[in-house]
Specification:
A: alpha+beta; 4-stranded antiparallel beta sheet; 12 helices; globular; B: alpha/beta
Amino acid sequence: MSEFWEVFKIEARKLISNKRLILFVIASSIAVALFLSFITKTTISVEQEPVRVCANPSLSQVIENAGGTLVESDCEVSISPPGEFYYFIDIYDNTSRISRLEEFASNFINEYYYSSIGITPTTTEKTILIIGDEIHVIDAPPTIVAATLFGTITVLPIVLFMTLLFGNEYIATLITSQRERRILDILSTYPIKRRTIILTKISLGIVFGLFTMLLFIIVSGITLVFVIPHNVVSQAPINIEVTMPTWGVLLSLLNTILAILFTYFATTAIAFRTKDPSETSVSTMIVGSILNFSLIIPFITGSFAIFKYPIASVFIPTLVPIQTALLSLIGNLKMAIGFTLYMFIVTFIMYKVLMREYRKSFE
Amino acid sequence: MSKIVEVQNLYKRYSNGTEAVKNVNFNVRKGEIFGLIGPNGAGKSTTLKIIATLLKPTSGKIMVNNIDVVQNPLEARKQFTYLPESVSAPPRDKVIDLVKYFAELYSVNTGKSVDKMVERALTISRLDEYANKKVSELSKGMLRRLMIGITLMPKPQLIILDEPTSGVDVIESIRIKKILRDVANSGTAIIFSSHNMLEVETLCDRVALMYNGKILKIGSVDEVRGDNHNLEDAFMKMVGDENE
């Protein structure tokens, strides 16, 4: 630990001495936060009371409880877990016209996801949130519902995402430049553990990202309070009384940390293969897509229940606490733990991939 | 003289199937300048990278100061420093900051004085007056000298240099060779690679001629040169024999 801390301090001093980078981050944070604050306009309306109360709602019951408002484009309804996975289900001819994947998706929704979490009809911009036996139909997209549930401002998910990109870009630039200049070769022959060299850089990137996030939040807050107090409208804030259990909070935090680590590991691993740091962001998305696709295959064959979890959200870290928190809201500890285990496994695998790429970079 | 490096039956095959090093054996003594010479692709850099613990050998044994570099890489790294070929530095960094960065990292597990190492690097590279200048203000040769100074600053038992004079002009090359000779005279062993066989003749105590992953001949410059006019002629003759 002392080795890690000593190396971290040295790397941090080097980062702080880069005044151009620090100025760029501060300036861009202010610019982006101002821009986002000005364009943000939130309108949320919600039915204050549950539409109907029913225990263990089935797919048809929930659609029925949505009052038919879900059916807006011909005979199709778009249903997905919040923010990801788009399933198209024909509600008039549910079995004959859907493909194998869609059929499985339908079963998945019914059996695993729909019975425990709210569904998001993305085309209608409504969120169905199930809390215990209550079904809430909310006239807002899931990110806003989730953000409101957590008492955060609307732009926070975007801020967090931007934060991640800033930290990732820093790491990608640092690794590619040190590798191209062969500085990393020299450092790797110093009497310091290889994992310390890499993990301190990644940790510094995360701290750098958190610093950016803090700046974003501060500037956004100042802008919202003093600059444009009338522009952001919260006409009818969601007023659902929810109490998140402690394990829900802890698992949400844990999954957020794991998702951030996963993304940083992936970016750094790619940085060992590319000469252009900007390629790493795109490559991270490609890796995410490939991993998603590869995990959908056992999902289609239906071999392992764990693959049926909302894996796509792993690649959008802002959704991870939302997913886990929603699971905790409805008291599904088993599924929340399963999701956390999945996160542990993919993060560990990505760490191994990163260290392999690091070793291969010397060849 | 006691041995500082012992390489026994070294073999390296890359994951793509390329056999870069084939059954290489040699040793380097304390205070000796040992040159690995040969054309590009001969296996010189791979050999140096394996000794420097950057790559793992497919088979074979490498001891540095009686420490097995594969079994105990962290301890082995305390015995040597390594300078790769065509190394560069961030142009906006100040020279002093760059040297300090390396010195601080080296001191983490060795406890060596950062100030002394920084002073030594600047003195060896004769760039004291450039300490507060930016790296971009240094010529290519000066930067190479600076990086050699950084490599020498911890006073290791062994220094591993991959093509240290590559791409620098004659004057800088002579300066670098003088630095290396001074260091060797103080008891530090130096192992370096070069494809410039003529410059090796004037610097090395012993050389190993490498070609196609194998050592063709090893010994003092005179022994390897034999009856030939210079090392280049000797090499061409041996390669001809090898290909026949």
